[in-house]
Write a structure and sequence with these properties.
The chain has 259 residues and is mainly α. The protein folds into 3 domains: 68 residues, no CATH class; 43 residues; 127 residues. Helix content is 67%, strand content 7%. The chain is built from 8 helices and 6 strands, in the order H-E-E-H-E-H-H-E-E-H-E-H-H-H. Strand 4 and strand 5 form a beta hairpin. The two termini are 97 Å apart.
């Protein structure tokens, strides 16, 4: 398309001259500078051509700028319209593509009052409705996003609160168990300290008895030895029973520690 360099005159550019364009001819599909536009507007074949300023041309959507009044295949002016193919065409197109098509119409008849046609108004309404629907949907989705953000914040607060309750409960449970353990340990240690004292006393008594037994075997008479042995046997029996009682008490104390 000749408008690939939008700001330059097409005629001058073909001659290697870079003059800024001021108008665009919709029928010639050519940009003209001020000098080239004058003969174009006076030439009898192009006097009635529709033109627009380059500023207005650049306001058109890109896809519309690419639409030309010349046939892309034959480089001839598009003057006809094929209803069967719903396609504008040039004279050469009739031979190449539309030889079997009937009721070819002048393109000028199709284009009459196209901007004020019901189709344009319908499309405008459809676009407006589509935009309003999208705006409504966007607003709805933004509200939903705001809602789920609020829900997430509340859920996070609830989780943190529940975590605190659980931590507080576990801390209290831990402290109660530790306090109970300290109490049991103190009581058990006190009992065991008492037993140790008793055992040490019994041990000292046995040491004394051993010393006395040694002296008895060395210096006692037979009668003294006979009677003394019975006393020693009685004391030894008591010591044995005391040791057995200690073993039973020790096992009981260990069980208390395990509980």
């Amino acid at each position: 398309m000749a408008s690939s360099v939008k700001n330059l005159c097409t005629i001058c550019h073909d001659d290697g001259i870079f003059n800024p364009a001021v108008i665009w001819c919709t029928e010639c599909a050519v940009f003209f500078c001020r000098d080239c536009e004058k003969p174009h507007s006076k030439f009898h074949l192009s006097t009635n051509h529709k033109t627009m300023s380059t500023e207005d041309y650049r306001k058109l959507p890109t896809f519309m700028q690419e639409i030309s009044s010349q046939c892309k295949d034959h480089k001839k002016k598009i003057e006809l319209y094929c209803p069967f193919h719903a396609s504008p065409c040039c004279v050469q197109c009739i031979t190449d593509k539309h030889s079997k098509c009937h009721e070819m119409k002048p393109l000028s008849d199709i284009l009459k009052q196209v901007k004020s046609s019901a189709s344009v108004q319908l499309f405008e309404k459809d676009l407006k409705d589509a935009k309003e629907n999208l705006d409504t949907a966007i607003k709805y989705m933004k509200n939903k996003i705001s809602t789920i953000n609020t829900q997430k914040s509340k859920a996070t607060e609830e989780i943190c609160y529940m975590r605190k309750l659980i931590n507080d409960y576990l801390n209290k449970l831990e402290q109660d168990l530790l306090n109970d353990l300290d109490s049991k340990h103190s009581k058990l240690k006190s009992n065991m300290d008492t037993l140790v004292q008793q055992m040490e006393h019994q041990a000292s008594q046995i040491d004394l008895m051993q010393s006395q037994f040694t002296k008895m075997t060395q210096y006692a008479t037979e009668l003294q030895m006979y009677i003394g042995l019975r006393e020693i046997e009685k004391i030894a029996s008591q010591a044995t029973k005391y040791s057995e009682d200690l073993e039973s008490a020790e096992e009981k104390n260990l069980e208390m520690v395990l509980l």
